[in-house]
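@channel sequence for tomorrow's demo:
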Amino acid sequence: PSMISIIIPIYNGSKTIVKCLDSIWKSCLPADQFEVICVDDCSTDNTVLVLKNEQHKYKQLRILQNRTNLRAGGARNYGVREAKGKFIVFIDADDYYNNDSLLFAYNYQNKYNLDILMLDYSRQYSTNDNICSVHNFPNESIMRGVDFIKTNGCPYSPWKFIFRRDLMVNNNIWFEENCCCEDVDWCFRLVLHANTIQYKNKVLNCVIINEGSQTAVEHKSFKTVSDKLFAGYRLNELLNNPDYRKDQKLSSYIETVANLYLYEGVKYMTACKAPIHDKVNAIRKYVNKRNNQPTAVSFAYRHPSIFACLTNISALLVPYIIALKRKLVKR
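structure tokens (generated this afternoon):
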């Protein structure tokens, strides 16, 4: 059997990490065949103390600490560099594994030795107990990554993947650091390099959506809005590879997802006030002229200064529009 490394990026996760770790300790993985690497990203609470208390009870737990805050991408990169396992799986500090799912993934990879095994996850909002499954792909055959994307699409969720460490390391498929949306192009690049990938219809873990999480607040600052544009830019950069570009179905799919992120970036820029030159610079840096762009993206590309001015005006009106909407719908 081959060891699996479970990597957890963590920032101020003292209140949730024990539940996450408990789901691993209860997974029935062979004690000598897994390690858990928690990468603390400069937490300001007592996260490290909580981790050290867990470490006293479980020798499989390793604690790494970033010297500077690099967000989830940087924490995952650090964990992978230090990992000893043949296989890697990610989970966030406020999520947890389902019952025997981790053991299933481990045993499946030891049997078939895939570049990537892809499972499902469920989603739960912290404000209620409702849990819904995310993604169900039509094809469960083993195939090349390129064919997988054309057949099933590509999720942007690294916690769905149980993959060979050398696939990431040998191909230099590292996460973008110190930004949000770092996982979008990473997922594409990892899948595109896979010679063997298979999807199985089994829920691996449950992802908790908190009001204060990155997912919930990612549009509230210009930095995170700009990161949306950056994600779209990185996806479009994949099309510089002639093999991807000449495959019409593949290139069309990548372009569609890139346009989605570029559109979200310019859309949320209308609700975000920032210096005009910062907005103009972000547009000029990350938005390139391509076919089939959404109208708003095309307008921002052609008239960045006008777009930046208009969005600063609209940003002043957004709070009043939201207040009016809440008054009308009474919530």
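heads up for whoever presents: Residues 213-218 have pLDDT under 50 and may be disordered.
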